[in-house]
Amino acid sequence: MSDQRITVVGAGLAGLAAARALVDAGAAVRVLDRGRVPGGRLASRRIDERPVDLGASYLTAPEGSRFAAIVDDWVARGLARPWTDAFRVADDERMHGSSTGPIRYAAPAGLRSLAVDLAAGLDVRQQAAVARVTADGVELDDDELLASDAVVLAMPDPQARRRLEPGHPLLEVLQRPEDWEPVIAVALRWPERAWPSDLHGVFVNDSPTVGFIADDGDRRGDGAPVLVAHTTPTLARRHLDDPDAVVPEVVGAVRRILGIAVEPVSTYAHRWTFARPAAAHDEPFALDGGVGVAGDGWGGKASAGAAWTSGDALGRALSA
Questions:
Q1: What is the mean pLDDT of the chain?
Q2: Where are the alpha helices (DSSP H) in 154-221?
Q3: Alpha carbons 60 and 37: distance in angstroms, whole number
Q4: 165 secondary structure, DSSP code
Q5: Which among 26, 52, 87, 210 is least buried, having the fewest CB atoms inside 10 angstroms?
Q6: Which residues of the chain form beta strands (DSSP E)?
Q7: pLDDT, tens digit, for every residue of 88-98?
């Protein structure tokens, strides 16, 4: 593939996995990303002098999978660590049990550090916003045209749809905005830890406000008194134009569920308009006429691991 020029749009897990697979096959690959740093929904923002994970809460890696080998390498190099296989379970009023599942992996430096590692050595161009995919390649918002033999759109379906020309066959496959659920992630810092040391995280059922709470200090391993709460899609939809408006309701729900007596000393809200699909595609990716789409909305169940697997599979399909 040494004479093939391929453009990957999106420097999250899916885009970087696709780029890696294509580079391994000998293709010339450029990665374009509209953000200031790689990561996509492996988003870690520096708040009060430490990174806080505001996107994906953790990684899982099925034993024997291609992604498991990537995670094992991160663990061996100290970039990731096994976090927990157990979370608490709660309703809108209190915790009342626990749930055991697969090992969840976290990153001491924040999950975005794993994307930075995947991006090392790749041709990644940040703050490059792609307006549309044309027959000749990709057109940026500033009208620059980058010629490409193939294009990978590593992003949620609604964002990929906006970059395809009218009549493109993939428009028949890709989901619409109403098929995706929004979430607002709220980081909450207290002066000291006021919840159980083995909390790890909490699956919250039957709450109009919160769906999941992560102990970010436990997750990162530094013990910081920081929680990250993910709202329900219903609450997020009402406040996409003003994410900060959910903070009082989220603070009240977190304090009530965990039995915390005092208010947090700082908060930060981050909006995810397309956080996850209501139902993921069963196929690992879509590919038509040299344009492919990959991401965590593919492969049957949305997750960070699914995003890497989708991008890797699309990159290998293009290589073939």
A1: 96
A2: 157-162, 216-220
A3: 23
A4: P
A5: 26
A6: 5-9, 28-33, 44-47, 50-53, 81-90, 95-106, 123-126, 130-134, 137-140, 145-147, 150-154, 180-189, 201-204, 210-215, 226-231, 266-277, 286-288, 291-294
A7: 999 999 999 99
Would the pLDDT of 3 be above 80? no
Q: How far is it, in rounded angstroms, from Cα 113 to Cα 243?
A: 25
Superfamily of domain 5-319: FAD/NAD(P)-binding domain (3.50.50.60)
Chain-centre distance for alpha carbon 190: 26
Domain ranges in the chain are 5-319
Tens of pLDDT, residues 55-86: 999 999 999 999 999 999 999 999 999 999 99
Q: What percent of the chain stands above pLDDT 90?
A: 96
| CA dist., res. 203 & res. 207, Å (int) | 10
